[in-house]
Amino acid sequence: MKLNLIIISLLVCITSCAVADVEDYPCNKGKQLLEEGRADEAILFWRKRADSTSVYYQSRQVFGCLADTNILTHSNQIYSILESFAKEGSSQAELMLGIRHLQSSAIDPNAIKDATYWIERAMEQGNVDAKMIYAIMYTSNTKIRKDIDYAMKLFNEAANDGSILAQASLAKTYKKGRYGIEVDLSKAHYWSQKVDETTTKLNWTSKKEYKEYRKSLESN
Q1: 131-170: buried (b, 16+ CB within 10 Å) or exposed (e) per residue?
Q2: Helices in the chain by DSSP H: which ranges?
Q3: Cβ proximity of 112 and 100 under 8 Å
Q4: CA gap 115, 199 in Å, rounded
Q5: Taking the model in full, what pTM does it have?
Q6: Do the beta carbons of residue 164 and residue 156 sit within 8 Å?
């Protein structure tokens, strides 16, 4: 009898722990924050759990969680939902809106106006990643206007202010020689190290944690 109780207790613990892990990573925890009126924290939480320094991968994580938790029931709702969060003062929502419109500008050139509007609003609130996206908009003729010198100035400002996205972008730029910038492996290494430091400081999800999470789902 005692052994059976121990086994049952262990099973309950294992089950509850597994459920807690799934709830905390990544969508349900963010939904809980939204329900508490903490939209900015919810979106940032989802972005961190994307486990990527690609802003587009992070945005897919956010949009995916909005759908997975039934906050978003149709893709056409994404703009109105994010706008409602933005009106509540979420710079993260403004950033996501800007990115969404920036993605749409590949098909609809008029979307660049909306992208600029929302990204500038996020920048005004001190969102350092918004400054990095603004820099990207100056690296292509199809965006605002091509100005690589100004773009690099913004990249460096955002990176020095703690934008992990800008740090990763600079590391790649100097490693690959993007935008006509001369390859500089010492600078690439410097910014790559900064990415690691910022990842730890800001508690961004590690690839190891993400892989372990995916593995735990497959085994359950």
Answers
A1: bbbbbbbbbeeebbeeeeeebbebbeebbeeebbbbbbbb
A2: 2-24, 27-35, 39-48, 55-68, 78-87, 91-104, 111-124, 128-136, 148-160, 164-176, 185-201, 207-219
A3: no
A4: 27
A5: 0.76
A6: no
Nearest-angstrom CA–CA distance, 105 and 117: 13
CB atoms within 10 A of CB 174: 21
Task: Write out the two tokens for 128.
Answer: 């350092």
Domains of the chain, residue spans: 25-126, 129-201
Q: Is 19 helix (H, G, I), strand (E, B) or coil?
A: helix
Yes or no: say if 98 and 133 are a contact pair by the CB < 8 Å rule: yes
Per-residue pLDDT tens digits for 43-81 = 998 888 887 778 888 888 898 888 888 887 777 788 888
Nearest partner of 49 among 64, 69, 36, 34, judged by Cα: 64
pLDDT in tens, 145-179: 788 999 999 999 999 998 988 998 999 999 999 98
- Establish whether the linkage from the previous residue to 109 is cis, with ω within 30° of 0: no
**Cis preceding linkage at 26, omega within 30:** yes
Reference 199, options 52, 61, 55; nearest CA is: 52
Q: How far apart are the first and last CA of the chain?
A: 27
pLDDT at 18 over 50: no
Residue listed under structure tokens 């944690």: 209
Q: Are 136 and 172 in contact (CB under 8 A)?
A: no
